[in-house]
Amino acid sequence: MTTPSRPRCLAELVALTGFALAQPLLSVFGQAPDQFALRGASSEQIIAFGLAVIALPPLGLWIFELGVGAVRDELRGVIHRVLSVTLVGLVLVQLIPRSVPRPLAVGLATAGGVAAVAARQRWEAVRIWLVYAAVGPLAFLGLFLLASPTGALLRADAPMADVAVGAPAPVVMVVLDELPLESLIDADGQLDRELFPNLAHLADRSHWFRNTTSVSPATWHAVPAIATGRLPEDGEGPSLADHPQNLFTLLGAQYELDVTESVTRLCPPSSCPGRATADVMHDLRTDVRRVLSGRLRLTETADDPVAVVQAERPALFEAFVSRLSGAPNTLSYLHILLPHAPSRYLPDGRLYTDFSEARGRDGSGLAWVEDPWLPLLHRQRHVLQMVYVDRLLGDLIDRMQEQGTFDDALIVVTADHGASFEPGGTFRGNWGESLTAASTPDLLWVPLFVKEPGQQTGDISDANVLTIDILPTIADVLDVELPWEVDGQSALGPPRPTNDKPWRGVRSVGWGVGVGEDLVIDGDAVWPEVLERSLDSLLPSAGDPQRLWRIGPSPELVGQPIEAVADALEAVEIDLVDPDRYSGTPPSGAAPALIHARGTPLAAGDAVAIVIDGQVAATGTAFTAAGRIEVAVMVDPALVSEGGESIELFRIR
Fold first, then answer.
1. Helix-strand-coil percent breakdown of the chain, rounded to 5?
2. Which of 59, 330, 417, 492 is deepest in the core (most CB within 10 A)?
3. Shared domain check, 435 and 380
4. In the predicted model, what is the mean pLDDT of the chain?
């Protein structure tokens, strides 16, 4: 059997890797410009990524073939046929429906690869087609760079506005993510000062616009709305090409910019260079492996999990704080995916073993299950993580006070949108879901604190404020005349005559996000529900030392010695899931704060208690997962001794 020439082998490998690897990767990443923003990639790095995707796989395989051929030329042909079968199989396995079991899909794909290589050996037309198909990867690269949403990042540029700053002051702005107002307040609408002392300290020197609402549940639209003062429009992406008139182009000519964006790319590249190439490419390689694992059925997931919230989020915040210069004409901006899921941080900043939010979602992955326990557990985890975010905000305030810039600065702290934890309801309202009465209080109302330069006392305003008002408010404080029309208005100016709240829903557009429902919400009608879902609906009042852990069906039991409540409990055999997590130094280095176990005998819906060293540490409800009855609760990790032998499970009578 004749071995193809070396150049022909290269052409065939270019064609086959193009269809097996380059096309799916460039298609996924081309529809995810937010991923490159998350990684801090520059235009040059995006181009380098595309070139690497189409060039490195075939070159690597070809060099391998040549190395084998240098030992024995006959083996080169064998290796080429094996690689060809594998690559054709990789193409086919991505086309087989996910409903087909993975072993069967792999078998069918392999058989298809063998048949395709046999056809190549038999028919000249197939061999000719393979050579011409080598131009395919160049076409895929062209679509990625020129016609995809990611390609818009490469062409993004905008001039800085020619404006005068009449009242210059350093600007420090933090945009948090997935933070509903109700996670910060009590039933009277007051900040929970025990859990969030640093936000309370900021509020004491700020205007707290308590009736602020977001205009979109998607960061893709919600953050640009904050930066531009405009309501989202269909067809817009999260890039400078779509939003050339924004906060950064407004102040960029007069201010030094220190901008950290997590999903958007609104700051001009000339003022906001990307990260080091080695770091960006390292992160993108991780993303490529994750996408290919799903595409090639190496994992069970059918998703293209491109944008992954990284565990380095606190490091991103700390780096931002360390760069605060205190210079008078600086804009320091941070959008960070906190307290955004996944919830993995305890109030003291320690990581704890993960327990995916997918446990608690329905089959679509978009809404919570009807069983109230898992949404409640995830809300508790969300609040625990927000307590840690408050600690990070305290670091920022301390840094500014040490520099002597806190008094003179304009400080803005807000969130792009909220999140909902209602059983049976949506989590974010993304991907074509309708805004419901159940999710409206959670998704719309967000915090907004604005500290003016020199402001010494705080106040609370219940005026109708929208996140599109933030840019006009900054312009108002700095005495800048906006050179473009905005939909918002300064929150410091005359209030709106009504409490109507505009809302632009979301629909899926490929991998991107389009504008869905265009609604107007009656804020007066919904506000009582915001208060009803405050922290008082989740936790006991301030002053309780077990407060953060006292939730579930019998929260009054938490902290009680087992002797005092023995009549209420019935022992159940416990089987800890992944018992290594309770060792003194678990493999992940995570704190043993989430107890995940199975019990015998238990039924779904049974109220349970976790007892550690003779003390009730948490209560919860048993649930069904993968056909098994499981228990998951959060506990104070200080109670868990090494090895987890002291952890007991009881059914609450």
1. 40, 20, 40
2. 417
3. yes
4. 88
